Amino acid sequence: MGKKIMIVGANFMDKGSQAKLYAVIDELRKRFENCEIFYAHNDEQLDGSLYRFGKIPFTKKAQAQVLKANPLRNIAKIFRKKNDSPAGEIDIVDTVSKMDLIIDISENALSSDSSMADVEYYLNNIKIAEKFKIPMIIMPQSFGPFNFNEDNMHILGEMKDILFYPKAIFAREEYGYNELMGYFGLDNLRRSTDMLLIDNTFDISNVCSRFYRPEIPEISEDNNVAIIPNAVCFDKKFNEHTLDMYLKIFEALNYAKKNVYIICQSSADMDVCKQLDSISKQYGNVTLVERELDSVEINMFLKKFELVISSHYVASVQAYRNYIPVLLLGNGVKYKDLSELLGQEKFFFDVLSEDCNNYDIVDTLNDFIKEPDIAKTRIQTRMLNLQTKSCFDVFDELNW
Description:
Order of helices and strands: EHEEHEEHEHEHEHEEHEHEHEHEHHH
Distance between the termini: 12 Å
């Protein structure tokens, strides 16, 4: 019988998170053909017939039951959704305790910027792995800052006690690596680029069943630009500035006779996508993709574009992997590091910075429109160097 593997830290509401889940499952199946893979989800409604992996409803309540349980007794039961189990019921302690590996693919949960509930949930997954002596790997993600207030300083002690346990912790940015090393001096800490930058010749049959059929919107063959907004950039403090930025972008793209498509990366962004669609009605070149595409569909769809204007990290990574330049309108260290990694510093703007000038963004956009091949060539060159190493090789260290 194959090894049992549980993946935590993902969610289907964000298609970037879903893409990371799919990438890990694909790599596991290529290495361990008969493994059983389980996605630990937070009560999501999923059609089980579409996927080649099991689903475990692993809410904070369920997690707490496992954490409190006696490892020698199976005492905690919870009810599954009808698509999770034909029997309708799962012994959560028995299921989790029999895992041979736990993999965390969070995005940026271990940080003082996250809620304390999310930080505790993250650490509790490591505690469960340690409790049942299950090997654990934390795949590339962002870490820090760790500026916890006085009431929450105890969490640093918990982190110091538990972060030594995983077989490997991959920090995606130098900042996160330095934060973890500076606070805790971990000998299991490693650096790696984002897992989605690795060209792993993704095989969809390793993840989805034969019933899955991707549906890609039909668009013209050239002159296409994708816009992928992030609701975070529309917070009250920056809403007016962000709307003005997009108005200027729409105007520039209309003048350049580009076909513009607004794409929703996360369910939380649909309202701002509709808002941008509304303010761009004066231009006849803007289309809202009203259906939320899944991660496979987004990746296939992005290949139809010559430029992606994105405020989402993973969508930008997916574009870069397809050698498509990105006007990166993000916020934070991970966006800055990503742009530098691909030699795209010129195309990165911290849109939540007081220093961000919308006219500079439009000038940069116009420069790209004039000479699109320069950015694309640099991305291709940098990607060739990046893809010589893979964080997925850590799976071979398991010696299964």
